[in-house]
Amino acid sequence: MNPIKFDGVRGCVFALALCVAHSVFADTAALPGTHTLASKHSFSTLVSRVEAAVAQQKMGLVATASASAGAAGRGIKIPGNTVLMVFRNDYAVRMLQASVPAGIEAPIRLYVIENPDGTASLTYRTPSAVFAPYPSDKLQVMATELDPIFERITRDAIGG
C-alpha cells in the first residue's frame, strides 16, 4: 500500500489545517486515551522508526501529512511535524460492518512532533478511545484488539 503524499495547493491547505489544529488542540492530553511519548530520537529518525514499527506490526501506512514539509516547500521553516495514518483493510471491513458512522475515525493517527531540544515526541489516541463514542459491541471488541498493536508500534518506535 503506497502512502498518499500531499503536495501543491492541496498540501499547503492541509498543512495549514494541521497547524491550526495543533494550536487549537495543543493540550491533547485532555482527550481520553491520548498518550504522548517523549523520545531521544530526532524528528526524522522517529518518523522512520514509526514507519518501520507499523510495518513490523503488519499494519498499513495509509497516508502521511506534514505541515512542516508543506511549509518547507514554500520556503518557510517550522518545527517538524508529521501525521502518519495507520490502519489495515481487514479492520476497516470489520469497523464498517459494526458501524458505518465510525468510518470517519479511521485511519488511526500517530503524530510526530519535533521538540525544541532536537528530539521528537509521538502522540496518539488508543483505538478504544477513538471508537468509544460509537454504540457497537463489535466495534469495541475490534478497537480493544487494536490497542495492543498501537501500543507495540509506539513502544517500538520510541524504544532504544
What does this molecule look like?
- With 160 residues, the protein is of the alpha+beta class.
- It has one domain (8-158): TATA-Binding Protein.
- The protein contains six helices and five strands; from the N terminus they run αβαβαβαββαα.
- Helix 4 runs antiparallel to helix 6 (137-158).
- It is globular and about 45 Å long.
If you consult CATH, what is the topology?
Answer: TATA-Binding Protein
Number of extended strands: 5
CATH superfamily: TT1751-like domain
Radius of gyration: 16 Å
Short description:
The chain has helices at residues 8-24, 43-56, 67-72, 89-98, 127-131, 137-158, and strands at 34-38, 60-65, 81-87, 108-114, 120-125. With 160 residues, it is of the alpha+beta class. The longest helix has 22 residues, at 137-158.
Describe the secondary-structure layout.
Elements: H1 8-24, E1 34-38, H2 43-56, E2 60-65, H3 67-72, E3 81-87, H4 89-98, E4 108-114, E5 120-125, H5 127-131, H6 137-158
Antiparallel strand pairs: 1-5, 2-3, 3-4, 4-5
Helix pairs in contact: 2-6, 4-6
Keywords:
single chain, 160 residues, alpha+beta, TATA-Binding Protein, 5-stranded antiparallel sheet, 46% helix
